[in-house]
Amino acid sequence: MSDKTPQIDDMSKRSREVFQRVVEGYLETGAPVGSRTLTRTLSESVSAATVRNVMQDLEYLGLVGSPHVSAGRVPTQLGLRMFVDGILEMGDLGAEDRQKIDQTMGEKDTDVTALLDRVGSALSGVTHGASLVLTPKHEAPIKHIDFVSLSRERALVVLVFADGHVENRLFTPPPGQTPSSMREAANFLNAIAEGHTLSELDGIITREIAARRQEIDALAAELVESGAAIWENKGESTERLIVRGRGNLLTDNESEADLERIRTLFDDLEAKRDIAQFLELADDADGVRIFIGSENKLFSLSGSSLVVSPYMNADQKIIGAVGVIGPTRLNYGRIVPIVNYTAQLVGKMIADRS
Question: Which residues form the Winged helix-turn-helix transcription repressor HrcA DNA-binding domain (predicted)?
């Protein structure tokens, strides 16, 4: 492989066309593309031997590889990245795809999570991949907080919001907690929390504990800090990530290696790991981002690709993300506008409701 990463502009017209045909053939069929097939599709008449020489050059550059002896070529991760960045032309969102996504917004559902669940199902159905939808944290002002002891090692923090929404979150309390320390912790929080959102409360708690250390028992202070960690931890609520359409990742002709990779991906999706990182993938992004293969470690992506876009609230703050995960031979030109449109639609829905 060359020490220098190859660039599309450095390639000859013939090399670029052969490379493009190899990638497009692979994305369409998932199979290696051979020289004889290419001679029938190239714009100029060339021999299979000439095409083989070009593909050898592309292989030397690390853009294509040969999965089997005497087989055709498939694009490498580097080749797919070059294709996506330099050659891929995005299609327009089809009317049928748009209609299926729009239909999810038709019901006047007061539960945002239920609506986003429908969005995830529609996105999975339209793209034939697995969809990922990260729901926003509840950002209404807090009305009341309470702690409930379930056992020595389990407790519940009950969050009541001003809009009537209630959340119950399990956590492991610091050792030695008593009914009185739990009451004191709840009283302390309720004195400072009302009217603030969870995001605002984190900094307030830190300041108030430091300023009023003498007024709060050490056990209660520890419980307050422990409870705050539960609701402010960026990866705290595994139910915030909605996964739909995992079965779409399986086909009838998967190799044993592919099946093992998909099983690992299923395990990660089931465990819903690295939820905060999923949002960070889209954070600070200008629209849709594409991650190919091992470009990031989220959800054991080796051999898979993720197309992801953030969505924003009325204040243009990123509060969630939508994405599609599938094999590296995703139809990027079709899926990117679908993900982009879905993210914009979800953002508008969230903004309108607020």
Answer: 11-77
Query: Which SS3 state, helix, strand or coil, does residue 220 take?
Result: helix
Count Cβ atoms below 10 Å from residue 70 Cβ, excluding itself: 6
Confidence of residue 205 (pLDDT cuts 50, 70, 90): confident
**Which neighbouring-strand residues pair with 171?**
155
Burial of 156 (0-12, 13-18, 19+ CB in 10 A): middle
Three-state DSSP class for residue 146: strand
Contacts of 56 (CB under 8 A, 6+ apart): none
Nearest-10 Cα torsion for 165, 171, 174, 176: 90
Cα separation, 323 vs 124, whole angstroms: 9
Sign of CA dihedral 110, 111, 114, 115: positive
Among 333, 119, 110, which residue's Cα sits nearest to residue 243?
119
The confidence score (pLDDT) of residue 238 equals: 41
Enumerate domains of the chain plus CATH numbers. Answer: 8-86 (1.10.10.10), 95-137+240-353 (3.30.450.40), 142-232 (3.30.390)
> Per-residue pLDDT for 278 more than 80?
no
Smallest Cα–Cα separation from 21: which of 46, 45, 38? 38
